[in-house]
Hints:
CATH architecture of the largest domain: Alpha-Beta Barrel
Strand content: 15-25%
Strand order of the largest sheet: 1-2-3-4-5-6-7-8
Shape: globular
CATH topology of the largest domain: TIM Barrel
Distance between the termini: 67 Å
CATH class of the largest domain: Alpha Beta
Number of domains: 2
CATH superfamily of the largest domain: Aldolase class I
Number of helices: 17
Number of strands: 16
Amino acid sequence: MRKIKIYDTTLRDGCQAEDIAFSVEDKVRIAQKLDGLGVHYIEGGWPGANPRDNDFFRLIRKESFKSSKIVAFGSTHNPKKKPGNDPLLKCIVDSGATAATIFGKTWDLHVKAALGIKLETNLELIHNTLQYLKPKFEEVIFDAEHFFDGYKNNPKYALKALQTAQEAGAHWIVLCDTNGGTLPNEVGEIITEVQQHITAPLGIHTHNDCELAVANSLVAVGLGINMVHGTINGFGERCGNANLCSVIPNIRLKLQLDCIPQKKLAKLSAISRFVNELANFRHNTHQPFVGNSAFAHKGGVHVSAVTKRPETYEHISPDLVGNRQRILISDQSGRSNILRKASEYGIDLDSSDPVVKNILASLKDLENKGYQFEGADASFELLIKKAQKKKKNYFDLEGFRVIVEKRKEDEEPISEATVKLHVGGQYEVTASEGNGPVDALDHAIRKALIKFYPSLEDVKLYDYKVRILDEKSGTGASPRVLIESGDEDSKWGTVGVSPNIIEASWQALIDSLEYKLHKDKIKLPKRK
């Protein structure tokens, strides 16, 4: 079967979207999920361009990947410097990435207007950069920026740029519709012409400014292109990039070509939600394949038909992409999701076990209140343990108090938290200050618990996000708090929801610490 390489640029191109600002830890977590999905290339960012991308490449070296190559992105070298003396190229070489992607100008307008150099000089930049990097990486990929617009304006020069990259030894040449304005028939015609002149393996990189990024990518694949660039949920600058959550299942299920392993395709919906959660976005309910409504049916003829034969109104089986059928007038599904999630935690549940029904009821109740467990796996595991009556009671809360005081206009507010707990029959009252009320609470609860559970000292809080669930309620809206924590071995997410943001934060904090104790199988202290 023909193999299509999937190249994910969520962590670079996706981060250029207006409302997205992933933390370094977010990027590492997303990269781990993409590797689990079976993506072939993960473009981590542009080393040397900003501190966040530098930190990512420093941290990602500590991770191991089974399926994916980490890619460093950058541009052709500075016209005033030789490749070996260009500091940004040096950063790419020193990044530790397995592969490098270099973009170069193929539209003569950009060469003259943006770079302000001669057309021949631009070709030299492409050749010199690729030739310099090729011995230093397993693969060097050339992104032909603005290729389709460049071809339409000056086909001879655009093709010459590709030929230059080929002569320099590029392992892949990727045709980019950078402005996203090319129609599918134009994409097809231009690719067909390119194939008459270029023998190097070709890729496609499309943007969605005309709502055609996925269509254009599939046209390219149909014509023999074997690498597709895109982002999870279509994140990207302006209107976004080709959405891999649509590209991947279309290639695998519709074109019946190999891209990611069939057994891993079922992770797609969860990864889509995970990335949305870390981006602090609402999940797009109506997104094809992975949206909650993608296989939802409401009343009348549709419900009657899909109950008998799902294929009457479903173009694929939803479980192939990790989604599920939903009958909106009587939502009876959900058990399979519970069982699948439990198995990930090594928890053996039987579908006929009453515990599954209890978990499902709890889950629906909590989701109605605004809880979301994508990105909060630790809270969901604790929910399962509670239903199984296996959740240990490591401590009991009597109460907490948080004070925020601003003493002078030009001074930062002071936050102080007091917590009252019962641990192993002992009564503990502790107080602590912090850089805000949540930080103060975190210090106070740890101060109370560490002498009983020393391993909690290893827990670090990596990220804290707040999502307002009902913007129309203004300052009275209920927030959802998502916290990412971790120790030397792993990281985990927890969630809390309440009209009071401090209470929501407290819930997520407590889940984080309790999960650590359960994970480490800590024994309860002896009662005194």
